Amino acid sequence: MTLKIAVPKEITHDENRVALVPRDAERLTRSGMEVFVESGAGLGADYTDGDYEKAGATVVPNASDLYGVADVILKVQKPTETEASGHESEMMRQGAVLIALLDPLRNPSLVSRLADCKLTSFSMDMVPRITRSQEMDALSSQSTVAGYKAVLMAANRLGRMMPMMVTAAGSIIPAKVLVLGAGVAGLQAIATARRLGAVVKGFDVRAAAKEQVESLGAEFIDEHLQEDAEAEGGYARELSGDQQERNRQVIHRHVQESDIVITTALIPGRPAPLLVTKEMVGDMKQGAVLVDLAAETGGNCELTEPGEIVQTDKGVSLIGLTNLPATVPVHASEMYSRNISKLLGLMVQDNQWSPDYEDEILDATCITREGEIVHSRIKEQFRDQAAT
């Protein structure tokens, strides 16, 4: 039986990405699968229904018809409520497979719903950071976009130019940029700010980040860095209270000197660590800009308002927009589509659904399976909640 792949239109507000671009849809159809795309699914990323039809996909007029034929559903955002038809997951037929950015550690009620709907689900934000899975790492690809766009948004908001210039009207001093967190988003922010001509400093609690930051031409802040906080998979772990306070003291001084501050620090499954207090914001330069890429998980800045751009009485702009990749939908979709296609490739052999659930990548990304919650960390989270 031919495997049927479905790509719905994203209904989350301001989500312009699409899970599968025509280029990858053509690859799937050439391999013998059938691809169904909801009408208008790619328009936010500049892909028309005609582009998908040329790629061999079938365009379906609405989501209910799409979900009715789907064996495997590819999405960007996790399923959500619709005004007309209820929750998206309840429109999917039992036994179907869902692959999306589910953020399961912070959405236990969604995990329970997926299990109740007898869906097998894989979360693109749970791909392990190992060599084999680099092409599937959606967190990294989308963080690349976010780091890039964060600098452009800050530069656009800043009332001065970024590079040093020598003009007939005098010399212009370059802007000073501070990037807190040197993961994928932070490193891309550093590279982008450097390309724009700014003087850039980077900070991270992981000692290994020093070489990466300096390789991009930025200065690494390592004053009083006494505790290396690198955890499994290259992520940062939570620091002790004393070390957090020492770090904030160091950060405070550099925040005062900066025209732009970009914060990117995240801890998987936990609220974002507080890096910039309201006192630090109060000491920032008049007209400075802070972009908080951790806004969706609470923010690295104490005064961040998720989803909003606010300005303090001193004229400091705080940008807490929560979905920057969706503001660069063409390339964000291209990269995500490649990620999800590569993960799908692990599960399909000879056009048949045949995943090896013992594969370390699939084991790390599979959340529910035919109505059961199977991910070990999430099962443990449910047990802990039941015990309290």
UniProtKB/TrEMBL annotation:
Residues 6-146 form the Alanine dehydrogenase/pyridine nucleotide transhydrogenase N-terminal domain. Its EC number is 7.1.1.1. Keywords: NAD, NADP, Nucleotide-binding, Oxidoreductase, Translocase. InterPro entries: Ala_DH/PNT_CS2, AlaDH/PNT_N, AlaDH/PNT_NAD(H)-bd, NAD(P)-bd_dom_sf. It comes from the Bacteria. SMART domains: AlaDh_PNT_C, AlaDh_PNT_N. SUPFAM superfamilies: Formate/glycerate dehydrogenase catalytic domain-like (SSF52283), NAD(P)-binding Rossmann-fold domains (SSF51735). Residues 155-320 form the Alanine dehydrogenase/pyridine nucleotide transhydrogenase NAD(H)-binding domain. It catalyses: NAD(+) + NADPH + H(+)(in) = NADH + NADP(+) + H(+)(out). The keyword NADP applies. The transhydrogenation between NADH and NADP is coupled to respiration and ATP hydrolysis and functions as a proton pump across the membrane. Belongs to the AlaDH/PNT family. PANTHER family: NAD(P) TRANSHYDROGENASE, PROTON-TRANSLOCATING NAD(P)(+) TRANSHYDROGENASE. This is proton-translocating NAD(P)(+) transhydrogenase. It comes from Desmospora profundinema. The lineage of its organism: Bacteria, Bacillati, Bacillota, Bacilli, Bacillales.
